[in-house]
From TrEMBL:
Gene Ontology CC, one term: plasma membrane
Ranges of residues in domain PBP: 50-304
InterPro entries: PBP_domain, Phos-bd, Phosphate_ABC_transporter
Protein name: Phosphate-binding protein
Signal peptide positions on this chain: 1-22
Origin organism lineage: Bacteria, Bacillati, Bacillota, Bacilli, Bacillales
Length: 336
């Protein structure tokens, strides 16, 4: 009987020991899985599309209304697919108005621009001790549009377009452009002085000559689209994307640069293409100091440059050569 009790006690101790080992193994197994997960979430290459460190905070962008659709799409994709904890705010005050918000202490992180930074704006950055990096993001074609019922001015020469908007030429009626055009007033429209598109048109296309005083200049591109779509005698201009999104309301003018009429399109808008005279690069400008201080700003900059050609076409821009993109991405990654 005494031996039986000893045997029972021995079996009980072995069972308890085996149970304890089993519990210990289960705990260690679960802990190993968690550790692996934590390790992955804390590493990776920001903006690469691979597993990235989880970031938080905000990225603030303002500037060009022309560049806005492109940057807004990049911001949307970034917040959905890359960094849910980062808020990317994109506004469209216009290129020049945006630079006023960018070139100040604690200003915006990026300024979108449909022209290059001016010497006086760069001087402001230098005075602030601010390092600014120009990021060329896409190509845009300055597009001239008319009402869909305008069946006479669907093809114009480059010089005819310039003359319509110049004060010195005195083109008041369509018949002043060509005798067989209607003897009706030309109503001209465009973005106002806050926009780089206006400055590009005035400085590059018109050679800084005076614009006709009766051009209807607007802050909002949606307003321009609405006004032109309701005016049979209208002709106006803006970036290609705003035409591409309103082809049911507007007709793009084919422009003869000397070799026959050319329709603006993603195929013709190139710096060395058939629409080259009205093609321009568009940019965003990065506050490098903010990029060094705030990981989410640099991460978004790298993501935007790596992804910009993927969304350029759908937002009305022609893509850049891949070698240009790769060079800029390398420069940004060197800031880490």
């Amino acid at each position: 009987m005494k031996n039986m009790r000893r045997l029972f006690l021995l079996i009980s101790m072995i069972a308890i020991a085996l149970f304890a080992v089993a519990c210990s193994s289960d705990t260690n197994g679960n802990g190993g899985t968690n550790n692996t997960g934590n390790s992955n979430s804390g590493s990776g290459d920001p903006g690469s599309g691979e597993a990235s460190a989880e970031l938080e905070g905000s990225v603030v962008i303002d500037g060009s209304g022309t560049v806005y659709p492109l940057m807004a799409k990049l911001a949307e994709n970034y917040m959905i697919n890359e960094q849910e904890g980062v808020s990317v705010e994109v506004s469209r005050a216009g290129t020049s108005a945006g630079f006023k918000k960018f070139l100040v202490e604690n200003g915006t992180d990026f300024n979108d621009a449909s022209r290059q930074i001016k010497d006086e704006e760069q001087a402001e950055a230098d005075a602030l001790g601010m390092e600014v990096k120009e990021l060329k993001v896409a190509l845009d074609g300055l597009t001239f549009v008319v009402h869909p019922e305008n069946d006479w001015a669907t093809e114009l020469t480059e010089q005819e377009i310039i003359d319509i908007f110049l004060a010195s030429t005195g083109k008041e009626n369509w018949s002043d452009v060509r005798p067989d055009f209607p003897n009706e007033p030309i109503n001209t429209y465009g973005p106002n002085e806050n926009h780089g598109t206006y400055e590009f048109f005035w400085e590059v296309i018109l050679g800084k000559e005076d614009l006709s005083s009766d051009v209807n200049l607007q802050q909002e591109y949606s307003t321009l689209v609405d006004l032109i779509s309701k005016d049979k005698n209208a002709i106006g201009f803006f970036g290609y994307g705003y035409y591409a999104n309103n082809t049911d309301k507007l007709t793009a003018v084919k422009v003869d640069f000397g070799n026959g009429p050319v329709e603006p399109s993603l195929d013709t808008i190139k710096e060395d293409g058939a629409y080259a005279n009205f093609t321009r690069p568009v940019f965003t400008y990065l506050n490098v100091d903010h990029a060094k201080e705030k990981p989410q700003v640099l991460d978004f900059a790298i993501y935007a440059m790596k992804s910009v050609n993927d969304v350029a076409g759908e937002t009305g821009f022609a893509p850049l050569p891949s070698e240009e993109i790769d060079k800029v991405v390398s420069e940004l990654e060197a800031l880490k």
